Amino acid sequence: MNQMKYLWISLFLFSAVIQIQAEELNATVSVNSDRIQSPNKNVFTSMQRAMERLINGTKWSNANLSLNERIDCTFSLTITEQVDNHFKAELFIQSRRPVYNASYVTPALNYRDKVDFEYMENQPLEFAQTMIDNHLVAIVAFYCNLILAQDFDSFSPFGGSVFYQEAQNIATQAQSNSGWTGWSAFDDNRSRTSIINAFLNEAIKSYREFWYTYHRKGLDEMAANPDRGRTTILNALPVLKDIRSVRNSEVLLQMFADCKLDEIVSLASKATAEEKKNIYDLLQSAFPGSSNSLEPLRK
Asked: Does 1 have pLDDT greater than 60?
């Protein structure tokens, strides 16, 4: 009897480990409906729970990650308009990456998107790779794959390719639905399709190489050798200026600026006055609208 008991316990623990390894994302989800004067607020609670289950409960890849390897991220949805079951909202997506041998976490994605979708109270949200028939699912799945792509690219050269390709597959399916907005590749250079096309553009391949260098050879090196890690990052920055003239690169540069410029300014704080000036001039060329963020480099 005891042997049978231990067998069942072992099987339970094994299945629990498999379950832990099945998910890649550890998302915090919030739905803010303060702007909506609705008699039924339960729909927003239901929406939040359904999004949490979709993000944290879906196996997005074949990767087996332990509990402490799951990627921390945030999906914050602010509802701006409701007409029956149709919603307009602002979606703020953030993800973070731990730095090797440090308590510091670095931002990997920091992006805002205007979204619209239909949702009914207690409606489950489920992702099917071959056919996506729900707009909210398409939007969330797209950004889940983008988070994974950014993370995997930061640990190995072009390690996130499979996730970029899956995000492109989602965008292609979404474009076939004329009622879904935010996916056009022609009239909006910040659309979701434009974003994924930029990441997969061979002419901007150096950006993804830079992303790996920045994190794996730069930040991860700083625990052992701060000066070497910092120098590696600062020496790699010219790539950002070089790709500005490439078609579709603007959206990538803006995404990079939104989550990394403050970090770079902080890293450059120990540089010499001449080095700071050179870094300021380079970043000013790459990000001409970011003078305020770069101002500390001029002191």
From this structure: no
